[in-house]
Write a structure and sequence with these properties.
With 299 residues, the protein is an all-alpha fold. 80% of the residues lie in helices and 0% in strands. It has a domain of 199 residues: Orthogonal Bundle (MetI-like fold), CATH 1.10.3720.10.
Length: 299
């Protein structure tokens, strides 16, 4: 009996029969899909390289290429100006971070006021609507001029005198109108059943807004919010018209001194180095949101 048990223990365990093995036809389809994907990738890469080569050849063989190369693509001028541009670009980053926080706070307040239905807040709703209509209709550059030169002209006590602070105020006024509308759309996208369920569980109005409505609203509008902040990072260069030594202003001073426009290319490289990662992150969030929508629709 012991020998039988020992022999039974030594026998290899039989593999489970419930493991799924794709059929030959399914494996063939999968191989075909992989080969087609590789073929499409190679075709796309080849077409891209051909287009880039054609554009480069057209630029190099153009009659004015030598002048453009000397004025805009001077390597020595780029290396000489880049450290100064990098130091000046730090001011753009600071303006962007400060303005982003203020825009989120003011935009959220505008959105909350516009979605409320309390009769006593009707004047605030009207003021928020007028604010959005006015500041979305005024070009940002014009608003920078109006705030940067008009606000100090009032000579009010406590008015900031630093040009970059005035520029941040103008950017906040302009972008809060856009962000407020984005957040309002997010608040309206939350189904009323979510609010009703939270109230049925005993949550108050503020608790429902904080723990149920706001998290879903921000998640729904996070990609467009990031797009607005990408545009905000680029528009910090508009503050250069007020005189602060940020990246565009530093490039302008360097170009006027050396009569060479390569510093503008250096400033563009700095802005691209910030905006491209933000753009790719926004694209990733949009894909995740679309996948989540498709998954919920397929349930």
């Amino acid at each position: 009996m012991d020998l039988v048990k020992t022999a039974a223990r030594k026998q290899p365990a039989t593999p489970p029969n419930d493991t799924h093995r794709p059929s030959e036809r399914e494996q063939e389809r999968e191989r075909y899909r992989r080969s087609r994907k590789r073929r499409h990738t190679w075709i796309a890469a080849l077409c891209t390289l051909l287009c880039l080569a054609a554009m480069a050849a057209a630029a190099v063989t153009s009659p004015g290429w030598e002048r453009v190369h000397s004025l805009f693509l001077d390597g020595a001028e780029f290396r000489d100006a880049f450290p100064e541009l990098l130091r000046a670009f730090w001011l753009n980053i600071q303006m962007f971070l400060i303005a982003e926080v203020l825009i989120l706070v003011l935009g959220l307040l505008i959105a909350l006021v516009r979605v409320t239905r309390a009769p006593g807040l009707a004047p605030l709703r009207l003021a928020a609507t007028v604010y959005v209509d006015v500041f979305r209709g005024v070009p940002t550059l014009l608003l920078v001029f109006l705030v940067g030169f008009g606000l100090p002209a009032l000579r009010l006590q406590g008015t900031p005198s630093e040009p970059w602070v005035l520029g941040v105020i103008a950017l906040v006024l302009s972008y809060s109108a856009y962000v407020g509308e984005v957040l309002r759309a997010g608040l309206n996208s939350v189904h009323p059943a979510q609010r009703n369920a939270a109230r049925a569980l005993g949550l108050g109005e503020r608790q429902t807004l904080r723990h149920v409505v706001l998290p879903q609203a921000v998640r729904n509008v996070l990609p467009p919010l990031l797009n607005d902040f990408i545009a905000l990072q680029k528009d910090t260069a508009l503050v250069a018209v007020l005189g602060p030594l940020e990246a565009l202003r530093a490039a302008q001073i360097k170009a006027d001194y050396d009569f060479n426009y390569t510093p503008y290319l250096g400033a563009a490289v700095l802005f691209i180095a910030v905006t491209i990662p933000l753009t790719r992150f926004a694209d990733r969030l949009q894909r995740r949101a679309a996948q989540r929508t498709w998954a919920e629709a397929g349930r």
